[in-house]
Amino acid sequence: MVDLIIVVLGIIIGSFLNVCIYRLPRNQSILNPPSHCLDCNTQLKAWELIPIVSYFLLRGKCRYCGKSYSSRYPMVELITGLLFLWCLQIVGLRPELLKVCICTAFLIVITFIDYDYQLILDKVLLWFAGAGVAINLYIGYPHIADMLIAALVGGGLLLIIAVLTKGGMGGGDIKFVAVLGLWLGVKLIIVTLFLSFFIGGVGGALLLVLKVKGRKDFIPFGPFIATGAFISMLFGSELVWWYFHTIAK
Ligand SMILES: [Zn+2]
Question: How far apart are CA 74 and CA 246, in angstroms?
């Protein structure tokens, strides 16, 4: 039952994340106006706003003008629901679950905006930073010193890499990792960086092989950092343990 509640909650929050992903880069308010068809501006009725369900009831089209809705919308909703469920299964029903789910929601918004615009918005990072510090103070860890050192170490390492690779990494990525440091603390931000470069390497190669991206295309790094942070948040401590007990033994 808890599983079902968290999936439904995730899907509903995912629907709000869609609004954030669409409107924030366009400098529009995320509260006003209410959801409407982007083509004919007709305001959508309650039954047309049920996440995922409405998309299929409407067969992915506006009922008034026939314009297709992007399949991105139900996809983001489903992803959010499933990731929340995964968080529940790993973390359990504890205060930390709130932290992990809120962080995941931010990671989803940052991932899709970066994918669309190659941009990580300062206003999103500011809210992300504020939420992280507040939640950590509430939960009691990581300690404030750990948060600050992690922000400096994470941001600093990425800055060095950005300089060495001459622009392979943007200012947004550096700030993103610094904020993640606040959320995760030193140990997990280091795991995050290792994972991001590993996933970025494999993922970048796959995008080239599958011809999703060409050799000259810019591949945003934010989504790889976000994926690394998510895995680090759920499995970081186990990964560190495993590393020191097998590979580094
Ligand atoms: Zn329409």
Answer: 41
Q: How confident is the model at residue 247 (pLDDT cuts 50, 70, 90)?
A: confident
| Position 206 pLDDT exceeds 80 | yes
Q: Could you tell me if 158 and 73 lie in one domain?
A: no
Three-state DSSP state, 217: coil
Place of tokens 């999103």: 124
- One domain for residues 193 and 232: yes
Q: Ligand 1 mean position to 108 CA, how many Å?
A: 26
Ligand 1 centroid–CA 7 distance in Å is: 29
CA atoms of 10 and 133, how far apart (whole Å): 22
Q: Could you give the number of structural domains in the chain?
A: 2
As a whole number of angstroms, the distance between CA 22 and CA 26 comes to 7
Contact between 237 and 243 (Cβ < 8 Å): no
The answer to whether residue 249 scores a pLDDT higher than 80 is no
Domain extent, residue 186, equals 121-249
pLDDT tens column, 122-179: 999 999 999 999 999 999 999 999 999 999 999 999 999 889 987 678 899 999 999 9
* 112 in Cβ contact with 76 (< 8 Å): yes
Summary count for the chain: helices (H), strands (E): 8, 0
State how far the Cα of 97 lies from the Cα of 100, in Å rounded to an integer: 5
Near ion ligand 1, which residues have CB within 5 Å? 37, 39-40, 62, 64-65, 67
